Amino acid sequence: EPEVTQTPSHQVTQMGQEVILRCVPISNHLYFYWYRQILGQKVEFLVSFYNNEISEKSEIFDDQFSVERPDGSNFTLKIRSTKLEDSAMYFCASSLGLAGSTDTQYFGPGTRLTVL
Amino acid sequence: GQQVMQIPQYQHVQEGEDFTTYCNSSTTLSNIQWYKQRPGGHPVFLIQLVKSGEVKKQKRLTFQFGEAKKNSSLHITATQTTDVGTYFCRGGGGNKLTFGTGTQLKVEL
Question: Structural domains in chain B?
């Protein structure tokens, strides 16, 4: 069964450094998403991406965040200058169509980001 | 903004007991989805409800969408240890569905 993959599984960085989290969505999916989950808390929406542009973003997704689909398979989340409070599990997800329809979002295994 | 609350936050049950989690939204939802997240794992889609008053079943799991489309419930009959995890509802419209706060279920033998 096709699945969403994410690399690395764990990223440790110093405060102020830039990090890039990578995701390979399911190949025929058209919508891509990033979510964040701080330890012990709920999953929070960051951004959705369709047709090579951001379709929607949350208040969390400020100027230090950016997303990119550099080629036909990868979908990346960049955090320019990490802060301690960016430490969380970051999940990538993809879906065939809008989540408001009957399409399912498939989540990757996540990247645990630790900012020291 | 839209808020989706779940109760209870935690639930400990003995294996074989039933379990129910409730999801309540501050606004009317176009649809609601339920996810399960095992400890250390990622959210896994369980089901989506779209119609007012809709009820769906998956083996021991029963999902219900309220008549006003502002609340939903997940009921597990005769819990098993494999049911352990956090159950999230997720609702709204478009592609920015809001996750609920989650209910963490622990099942003891």
Answer: 4-50+60-108 (2.60.40.10)
Q: Which residue of A has its CA nearest to B46?
A: A104
Residues of B in contact with A95 (CB under 8 A): 95
Amino acid at B72: S
Can you tell me the mean pLDDT for A88-106?
79
Q: How far apart (Å, rounded) are the C-alpha atoms in residues B23 and A98?
A: 22
Identity of the residue numbered A8: P
Closest-CA distance, A15 to chain B, in angstroms, reads 25
- Chain A interface includes B16 (CB < 8 A): no
Distance in angstroms (rounded) separating the CA atoms of residues B34 and B37? 10
- CATH 2.60.40.10 assigned to domain A5-95? The reply is yes
| pLDDT tens digits, A35-93 | 999 998 888 989 989 989 998 888 899 999 999 998 878 999 999 999 999 999 999 99
Decide if A90 touches B, using CB distance below 8 A. Answer: no
